[in-house]
Amino acid sequence: MDITVNILLTIATAATPLLIAAIGELVVERSGVLNLGVEGMMIMGAVGGFGAGYLTGSPWIGLLAAIAMGALFSLLFAVMTLSLATNQVATGLSLTLLGLGLSGMMGTSFVGQPGERLPNLYIPGVTEIPVVGKLLFGQDPIFYISIALTAAVMWFLFKTRTGLTLRSIGDSHASAHALGIHVIRYRYLSVIFGGACAGLAGGHLSLVYTPQWVENMTAGRGWIALALVVFASWRPWRVLAGAYIFGAVWIGQLHAQAFGIPVPSQMLSSLPYLATVVVLVLISRNKRLTMMNTPASLGQPFVPDR
C-alpha cells in the first residue's frame, strides 16, 4: 500500500507542471494566439525561481520570481506578435531557443548548488490518515494551486461574460473588433497569464520536483503541455485528465527502469514523447471534432487598422 501511495504521489507531482502550463496555454489559445514559446518560458521560470530561492533562502520568493520571469518572457512574445504583428509560430520557436540558451547562461553558477524546496502541506491528525491523508492533505502547495487554477479557468471561460468575450475573440477577432471589443488588450492579458502559468510550472520543477538547477531541466514538458491543449480539445477538465495520464506515463517509465524491466532505458525514456505523438495522430484523424473545437482565429495576426 505504501508503494502504491508513493507512486500516486509522484504521478501527481509529475502531472502538476504539465497541468499548469497547459491551462495557461489553453487561455492563450482561446483568445486566438498560438504561443509555441511555452518551453522557453518554463525553463526561464525554472532558473528564475531556483536562483531567487537560492539567493534569498526563501522558496516562496523563488516561486514569485518564477511567475514574474515567465510573465516577462511572455510580454516579449506579446509585443512582437500583437503589437508588431510578427508570425506567431516563428516568434514562439525563437523565444523557446532564446529561453533555453539564456537560462543555461544564467544558471551556470547555480549548477550543483543545493536548492530551497517548498514544504508539503501538513495538517496534524489529518495528513496521517492512511492512503488519502498524504494524497489529499500532504501535497506541495503548487499541487493545490493547479487544481484551483483549473477550476477557476473553467468557471471563467464558460460562466462569465469576460470569458465569453475572450472566446468570441478567439473565434472571430474581426467580428469582436466590430462590436467594439479591444482585441489586443484581451490578447495581451491572456498571453501574460499564460506566461505566468508557464513560469509557475517551471518553478515547480526547480523548487519541488527536483529542487536543484539542471540545464534544460524542462526536458520537453512545454511541448507536451502544448499537445495537451489539443488533446483536451481546449476544455480545462480534459486538460486535467490528460495531464495526469501523461504524468502516469512519465512516472511509469521511471519505475519500469527501477524494476529492471528488460527494455532499453532509451526506449522507456522516450515513452512520454511517443505517447504525445500517438495522441496527436489519433486526434488528427477526427477532423470534424478538431475543427469544431479549434478557435477559428488561432494563430492569425490581428491589426485593427487593416
Task: Please characterize this protein's 3D structure.
The protein has helices at 2-30, 38-56, 59-83, 88-106, 132-137, 141-159, 161-171, 173-178, 183-209, 221-231, 236-258, 265-269, 271-285, 287-293. It has 306 residues and is an all-alpha fold. The model has no long low-confidence stretch (mean pLDDT 90). The chain has a single domain, classed as ABC transporter involved in vitamin B12 uptake, BtuC (Orthogonal Bundle). Helix content is 73%, strand content 0%. It is built from 14 helices and no strands. α2 runs antiparallel to α3 (59-83).
Annotation keywords:
73% helix, 14 helices, ABC transporter involved in vitamin B12 uptake, BtuC, mainly alpha, 306 residues
